[in-house]
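User: Okay, second chain of the day. Same drill as before: sequence in, structure tokens out.
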Amino acid sequence: MTSTEMRSRVTKKGQVTVPVELRKQLHLEPGKSVRFEKFERGILMEPVRDLADSAGALSKFADSDEVLKDLLESRKKPFR
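Assistant: Same drill. Structure tokens below.
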């Protein structure tokens, strides 16, 4: 695993600026969520996949009306 050191300061409000290079690489845009995990040697910060982002990627397969129609039809069929 390669490592590149980048630094930022913590503000009075506990905010930290993520360096622009990392924001671009990780597609961190305003409003995106990140998660933090504490380890013995430090903190891991990683992007959180948003369900809406995933839905957009799947939209080429069906629109929401088709999905809802199929779901309602499948509930009418017997389980086995």
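Residues 64-76 form the longest helix (13 residues).

User: Thanks, on to the next one.
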